[in-house]
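Lecture notes, unit on protein representations.

Consider one protein chain, 328 amino acids long.
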Amino acid sequence: MPENGGQPRPPHHPHDKGYRQLLSDKRVFLELLKTFVRETWVEAIYENDLILVNKSYVLQDFSEKEADVVYRLKTKDKNVIFYVLLELQSTVDYLIPFRLLLYMVEIWREIYTNTPQPERESKHFRLPPIVPAVLYNGANNWTAALSFQEMLDSYRDFSGHLLDFHYLLFDVNRYSEEELIRAANLITGVFLLDQKMRPEELVGRLQKLAGVLRRLTPDEFRHITSWLKNVVKPRMPEGFKEKVDRILDASNPWEVERMIYNLELTLEEMQRQALLKGLKEGELEGELKGKREVARNLLLLNLDIGTIIKATGLTPEEINSLKKQLEQ
Protein backbone atom coordinates (compact mmCIF):
# COMPACT_ATOMS: atom_id res chain seq x y z
CA MET A 1 0.00 0.00 0.00
CA PRO A 2 1.18 3.57 -0.62
CA GLU A 3 2.13 5.76 2.33
CA ASN A 4 -1.27 7.43 2.21
CA GLY A 5 -2.93 4.46 3.97
CA GLY A 6 -4.97 3.17 1.06
CA GLN A 7 -6.54 6.51 0.17
CA PRO A 8 -6.81 7.53 -3.53
CA ARG A 9 -3.48 8.48 -5.01
CA PRO A 10 -2.86 12.24 -4.70
CA PRO A 11 -2.38 14.33 -7.86
CA HIS A 12 1.11 14.65 -9.27
CA HIS A 13 3.45 16.60 -7.04
CA PRO A 14 4.66 19.89 -8.64
CA HIS A 15 8.14 18.33 -8.79
CA ASP A 16 6.85 15.62 -11.12
CA LYS A 17 5.90 18.20 -13.75
CA GLY A 18 9.28 19.88 -13.38
CA TYR A 19 11.20 16.61 -13.74
CA ARG A 20 9.08 15.38 -16.64
CA GLN A 21 9.74 18.61 -18.51
CA LEU A 22 13.43 18.51 -17.65
CA LEU A 23 14.00 14.85 -18.56
CA SER A 24 12.12 15.17 -21.84
CA ASP A 25 15.32 16.82 -23.03
CA LYS A 26 17.39 13.83 -24.12
CA ARG A 27 20.67 15.57 -23.25
CA VAL A 28 19.53 15.92 -19.65
CA PHE A 29 18.24 12.35 -19.54
CA LEU A 30 21.56 11.02 -20.82
CA GLU A 31 23.36 13.21 -18.27
CA LEU A 32 21.27 11.57 -15.52
CA LEU A 33 22.31 8.08 -16.64
CA LYS A 34 25.98 8.87 -17.17
CA THR A 35 26.29 10.71 -13.84
CA PHE A 36 24.66 8.16 -11.56
CA VAL A 37 24.64 4.75 -13.31
CA ARG A 38 28.00 2.97 -13.30
CA GLU A 39 27.24 0.23 -15.85
CA THR A 40 28.90 -0.57 -19.16
CA TRP A 41 25.73 -0.25 -21.24
CA VAL A 42 25.47 3.42 -20.23
CA GLU A 43 28.92 4.18 -21.60
CA ALA A 44 27.84 2.88 -25.02
CA ILE A 45 24.93 5.36 -25.41
CA TYR A 46 25.13 8.54 -27.46
CA GLU A 47 22.67 11.43 -27.55
CA ASN A 48 21.62 10.82 -31.15
CA ASP A 49 20.62 7.26 -30.22
CA LEU A 50 17.93 8.42 -27.77
CA ILE A 51 14.31 8.75 -28.84
CA LEU A 52 11.67 10.01 -26.40
CA VAL A 53 8.61 7.75 -26.63
CA ASN A 54 5.59 10.03 -26.63
CA LYS A 55 3.03 7.23 -26.43
CA SER A 56 1.03 7.20 -23.20
CA TYR A 57 1.09 3.90 -21.31
CA VAL A 58 -1.94 4.09 -19.03
CA LEU A 59 -2.82 1.62 -16.27
CA GLN A 60 -6.58 1.67 -15.69
CA ASP A 61 -6.24 -0.25 -12.42
CA PHE A 62 -4.17 2.57 -10.91
CA SER A 63 -6.57 5.48 -11.33
CA GLU A 64 -5.39 5.87 -14.93
CA LYS A 65 -1.82 6.47 -13.76
CA GLU A 66 0.48 6.66 -16.75
CA ALA A 67 4.17 6.08 -17.27
CA ASP A 68 6.21 9.24 -16.70
CA VAL A 69 9.25 9.10 -19.02
CA VAL A 70 10.07 6.37 -21.56
CA TYR A 71 13.10 6.43 -23.89
CA ARG A 72 14.04 4.13 -26.75
CA LEU A 73 17.80 3.69 -27.08
CA LYS A 74 20.44 1.60 -28.77
CA THR A 75 24.03 0.82 -27.92
CA LYS A 76 26.81 1.69 -30.35
CA ASP A 77 28.87 -1.46 -29.95
CA LYS A 78 26.13 -4.09 -30.43
CA ASN A 79 23.39 -1.89 -31.90
CA VAL A 80 20.95 -3.38 -29.38
CA ILE A 81 17.62 -1.57 -29.11
CA PHE A 82 16.31 -1.26 -25.55
CA TYR A 83 14.10 0.98 -23.41
CA VAL A 84 14.51 2.93 -20.18
CA LEU A 85 11.32 3.47 -18.19
CA LEU A 86 11.59 6.17 -15.50
CA GLU A 87 8.95 6.74 -12.84
CA LEU A 88 8.85 9.95 -10.75
CA GLN A 89 7.97 9.60 -7.08
CA SER A 90 7.54 12.20 -4.32
CA THR A 91 6.26 9.63 -1.80
CA VAL A 92 7.14 6.00 -1.14
CA ASP A 93 4.90 3.67 -3.16
CA TYR A 94 5.17 0.07 -2.02
CA LEU A 95 3.49 -1.15 -5.21
CA ILE A 96 6.16 0.37 -7.46
CA PRO A 97 7.76 -2.98 -8.54
CA PHE A 98 4.33 -4.24 -9.61
CA ARG A 99 3.47 -0.99 -11.42
CA LEU A 100 6.81 -1.04 -13.24
CA LEU A 101 6.11 -4.61 -14.34
CA LEU A 102 2.72 -3.61 -15.74
CA TYR A 103 4.28 -0.73 -17.69
CA MET A 104 6.94 -3.06 -19.07
CA VAL A 105 4.30 -5.53 -20.21
CA GLU A 106 2.37 -2.71 -21.91
CA ILE A 107 5.49 -1.69 -23.85
CA TRP A 108 6.19 -5.28 -24.87
CA ARG A 109 2.54 -5.80 -25.82
CA GLU A 110 2.66 -2.80 -28.15
CA ILE A 111 5.90 -4.01 -29.76
CA TYR A 112 4.48 -7.52 -30.21
CA THR A 113 1.25 -6.16 -31.72
CA ASN A 114 3.10 -3.89 -34.16
CA THR A 115 5.46 -6.61 -35.33
CA PRO A 116 4.28 -8.49 -38.45
CA GLN A 117 2.99 -11.95 -37.56
CA PRO A 118 5.58 -13.97 -39.54
CA GLU A 119 8.39 -12.01 -37.87
CA ARG A 120 7.07 -12.31 -34.30
CA GLU A 121 6.47 -16.04 -34.71
CA SER A 122 10.01 -16.61 -35.92
CA LYS A 123 12.47 -18.32 -33.58
CA HIS A 124 14.71 -15.26 -33.97
CA PHE A 125 12.09 -12.82 -32.58
CA ARG A 126 13.22 -11.12 -29.39
CA LEU A 127 11.57 -8.53 -27.19
CA PRO A 128 13.75 -5.53 -26.34
CA PRO A 129 15.24 -5.22 -22.85
CA ILE A 130 13.58 -2.62 -20.61
CA VAL A 131 15.53 -0.98 -17.78
CA PRO A 132 13.08 0.29 -15.13
CA ALA A 133 14.08 3.22 -12.92
CA VAL A 134 12.61 5.43 -10.20
CA LEU A 135 13.53 9.03 -9.44
CA TYR A 136 12.50 9.79 -5.84
CA ASN A 137 12.73 13.19 -4.16
CA GLY A 138 10.81 12.58 -0.93
CA ALA A 139 12.22 13.50 2.47
CA ASN A 140 11.67 10.04 4.01
CA ASN A 141 13.87 7.06 3.22
CA TRP A 142 12.82 4.95 0.24
CA THR A 143 11.55 1.76 1.90
CA ALA A 144 9.77 0.05 -1.01
CA ALA A 145 11.11 -3.27 -2.33
CA LEU A 146 14.00 -2.76 -4.74
CA SER A 147 13.30 -5.96 -6.70
CA PHE A 148 10.11 -7.50 -8.02
CA GLN A 149 10.67 -10.84 -6.25
CA GLU A 150 10.40 -9.15 -2.88
CA MET A 151 6.70 -8.57 -3.61
CA LEU A 152 6.11 -12.32 -3.97
CA ASP A 153 5.15 -14.37 -0.95
CA SER A 154 7.83 -16.90 0.12
CA TYR A 155 9.89 -16.03 -2.96
CA ARG A 156 13.04 -17.59 -1.48
CA ASP A 157 11.37 -21.02 -1.57
CA PHE A 158 11.14 -20.86 -5.38
CA SER A 159 14.59 -19.55 -6.21
CA GLY A 160 15.42 -19.76 -9.90
CA HIS A 161 11.82 -20.13 -11.07
CA LEU A 162 10.37 -16.66 -10.54
CA LEU A 163 10.24 -13.52 -12.64
CA ASP A 164 12.48 -10.84 -11.17
CA PHE A 165 14.11 -7.49 -11.92
CA HIS A 166 15.85 -4.74 -9.97
CA TYR A 167 15.08 -1.12 -10.85
CA LEU A 168 17.51 1.78 -10.76
CA LEU A 169 16.84 4.23 -7.92
CA PHE A 170 17.79 7.92 -8.14
CA ASP A 171 17.21 9.11 -4.56
CA VAL A 172 17.60 12.90 -4.72
CA ASN A 173 17.86 13.62 -0.99
CA ARG A 174 20.38 10.86 -0.34
CA TYR A 175 23.15 12.31 -2.55
CA SER A 176 25.66 14.39 -0.61
CA GLU A 177 26.15 18.06 -1.38
CA GLU A 178 29.83 17.41 -2.14
CA GLU A 179 28.96 14.66 -4.62
CA LEU A 180 26.48 16.83 -6.49
CA ILE A 181 28.76 19.88 -6.67
CA ARG A 182 31.70 17.71 -7.76
CA ALA A 183 29.71 16.33 -10.72
CA ALA A 184 29.15 19.96 -11.82
CA ASN A 185 26.36 19.57 -14.39
CA LEU A 186 22.74 20.51 -14.93
CA ILE A 187 21.03 17.47 -13.39
CA THR A 188 23.14 17.52 -10.21
CA GLY A 189 22.47 21.25 -9.89
CA VAL A 190 18.74 20.56 -10.04
CA PHE A 191 19.09 17.78 -7.45
CA LEU A 192 20.92 20.15 -5.07
CA LEU A 193 18.20 22.78 -5.47
CA ASP A 194 15.53 20.12 -4.99
CA GLN A 195 16.95 18.69 -1.76
CA LYS A 196 14.93 19.57 1.31
CA MET A 197 15.61 23.16 2.40
CA ARG A 198 13.95 26.28 3.74
CA PRO A 199 13.31 29.13 1.23
CA GLU A 200 15.99 31.25 2.91
CA GLU A 201 18.59 28.55 2.13
CA LEU A 202 18.03 28.94 -1.62
CA VAL A 203 20.58 31.72 -2.05
CA GLY A 204 23.31 29.70 -0.31
CA ARG A 205 22.65 26.75 -2.60
CA LEU A 206 22.75 28.97 -5.69
CA GLN A 207 26.01 30.56 -4.56
CA LYS A 208 27.59 27.10 -4.28
CA LEU A 209 26.34 26.33 -7.80
CA ALA A 210 27.39 29.66 -9.33
CA GLY A 211 30.43 28.16 -11.06
CA VAL A 212 28.33 25.34 -12.52
CA LEU A 213 25.54 27.69 -13.65
CA ARG A 214 28.01 30.03 -15.34
CA ARG A 215 29.22 27.18 -17.59
CA LEU A 216 25.74 26.14 -18.76
CA THR A 217 24.47 26.90 -22.25
CA PRO A 218 21.52 29.34 -22.48
CA ASP A 219 19.18 26.38 -23.09
CA GLU A 220 20.51 24.49 -20.08
CA PHE A 221 20.31 27.63 -17.95
CA ARG A 222 16.66 28.02 -18.97
CA HIS A 223 16.02 24.54 -17.57
CA ILE A 224 17.31 25.79 -14.20
CA THR A 225 15.14 28.92 -14.21
CA SER A 226 12.09 26.90 -15.30
CA TRP A 227 12.81 24.50 -12.44
CA LEU A 228 12.95 27.37 -9.95
CA LYS A 229 9.63 28.66 -11.28
CA ASN A 230 7.89 25.28 -11.10
CA VAL A 231 9.25 24.13 -7.76
CA VAL A 232 10.71 26.92 -5.62
CA LYS A 233 8.32 29.74 -6.51
CA PRO A 234 5.15 27.96 -5.24
CA ARG A 235 6.69 27.88 -1.73
CA MET A 236 6.81 31.68 -1.64
CA PRO A 237 4.08 34.13 -0.51
CA GLU A 238 1.81 35.38 -3.30
CA GLY A 239 3.20 38.92 -3.36
CA PHE A 240 6.72 37.72 -4.16
CA LYS A 241 6.02 35.27 -7.00
CA GLU A 242 5.83 38.00 -9.66
CA LYS A 243 9.14 39.47 -8.47
CA VAL A 244 10.80 36.06 -8.73
CA ASP A 245 9.38 35.62 -12.24
CA ARG A 246 10.87 38.94 -13.37
CA ILE A 247 14.28 38.10 -11.90
CA LEU A 248 14.40 34.63 -13.50
CA ASP A 249 13.12 35.83 -16.90
CA ALA A 250 15.88 38.45 -17.06
CA SER A 251 18.65 36.01 -16.05
CA ASN A 252 21.36 34.38 -18.17
CA PRO A 253 24.44 32.19 -17.52
CA TRP A 254 26.99 35.00 -17.75
CA GLU A 255 25.17 37.14 -15.14
CA VAL A 256 24.52 34.47 -12.53
CA GLU A 257 25.80 36.63 -9.67
CA ARG A 258 23.24 39.35 -10.49
CA MET A 259 20.41 36.77 -10.47
CA ILE A 260 21.55 35.41 -7.09
CA TYR A 261 21.91 38.92 -5.65
CA ASN A 262 18.41 39.95 -6.78
CA LEU A 263 16.91 36.75 -5.39
CA GLU A 264 18.74 37.38 -2.11
CA LEU A 265 17.24 40.88 -1.85
CA THR A 266 13.77 39.48 -2.56
CA LEU A 267 14.12 36.74 0.04
CA GLU A 268 15.39 39.23 2.64
CA GLU A 269 12.36 41.43 1.96
CA MET A 270 10.11 38.37 2.29
CA GLN A 271 11.70 37.54 5.67
CA ARG A 272 11.28 41.14 6.92
CA GLN A 273 7.60 41.12 6.01
CA ALA A 274 7.11 37.74 7.66
CA LEU A 275 8.81 39.05 10.82
CA LEU A 276 6.63 42.19 10.89
CA LYS A 277 3.52 40.08 10.35
CA GLY A 278 4.55 37.79 13.22
CA LEU A 279 5.14 40.76 15.55
CA LYS A 280 1.77 42.27 14.67
CA GLU A 281 -0.02 38.98 15.22
CA GLY A 282 1.81 38.65 18.55
CA GLU A 283 0.64 42.11 19.61
CA LEU A 284 -2.96 41.29 18.71
CA GLU A 285 -2.74 37.97 20.54
CA GLY A 286 -1.30 39.74 23.59
CA GLU A 287 -4.07 42.33 23.51
CA LEU A 288 -6.74 39.61 23.32
CA LYS A 289 -5.08 37.70 26.15
CA GLY A 290 -5.21 40.84 28.31
CA LYS A 291 -8.90 41.35 27.62
CA ARG A 292 -9.67 37.79 28.60
CA GLU A 293 -7.76 38.22 31.88
CA VAL A 294 -9.78 41.36 32.69
CA ALA A 295 -13.01 39.51 31.88
CA ARG A 296 -12.05 36.64 34.22
CA ASN A 297 -11.42 39.07 37.08
CA LEU A 298 -14.76 40.82 36.49
CA LEU A 299 -16.56 37.49 36.43
CA LEU A 300 -14.96 36.62 39.78
CA LEU A 301 -16.43 39.90 41.10
CA ASN A 302 -19.87 38.68 39.89
CA LEU A 303 -20.41 41.59 37.49
CA ASP A 304 -23.13 41.03 34.90
CA ILE A 305 -22.17 39.93 31.39
CA GLY A 306 -23.43 43.13 29.75
CA THR A 307 -21.07 45.25 31.85
CA ILE A 308 -18.13 42.94 31.07
CA ILE A 309 -18.88 43.16 27.32
CA LYS A 310 -18.73 46.97 27.50
CA ALA A 311 -15.53 46.88 29.55
CA THR A 312 -13.58 44.40 27.38
CA GLY A 313 -15.16 44.38 23.92
CA LEU A 314 -15.35 40.57 24.01
CA THR A 315 -18.37 38.79 22.54
CA PRO A 316 -21.08 37.19 24.75
CA GLU A 317 -19.90 33.77 23.49
CA GLU A 318 -16.32 34.40 24.61
CA ILE A 319 -17.43 35.61 28.05
CA ASN A 320 -19.80 32.66 28.53
CA SER A 321 -16.94 30.32 27.61
CA LEU A 322 -14.72 31.96 30.25
CA LYS A 323 -17.54 31.73 32.79
CA LYS A 324 -17.92 27.98 32.18
CA GLN A 325 -14.15 27.50 32.64
CA LEU A 326 -14.34 29.28 36.04
CA GLU A 327 -17.29 27.13 37.13
CA GLN A 328 -15.48 23.82 36.47
